[in-house]
Amino acid sequence: VQLVESGGGSVQPGGSLKLSCAASGFNFRGSHMSWQRQAPGKELEWVSSIFNDGVFKTYADSVKGRFAISRDNGNNTLYLQLDDLKTEDTAIYFCAKGWEKNFAARGQGTQVTVS
What is the pLDDT of residue 112? Predict the structure, then answer.
């Protein structure tokens, strides 16, 4: 399993970013996928999950209405659109193979800084 995140950066409050996760080494089309994040000094936090077919999606209350998860099964890529970013969204964002807090593997992460 290989998961490689990209798209992080530094933005001002209210700004937007789009994260990508390139997946390989497993049946991406058949796997539910998630995004997790970890802020400095805090525990890992589940952010969002998407069914393998992309139909059903769930979000943590803290990001609902601001973040949007999506996937491209043809290109083995997972996405997370981050809008209306807040300082408390600052964290390392990880792509994970699994559903909500139950995941089997995750990537190295991409840093998102809002200030």
Answer: 98
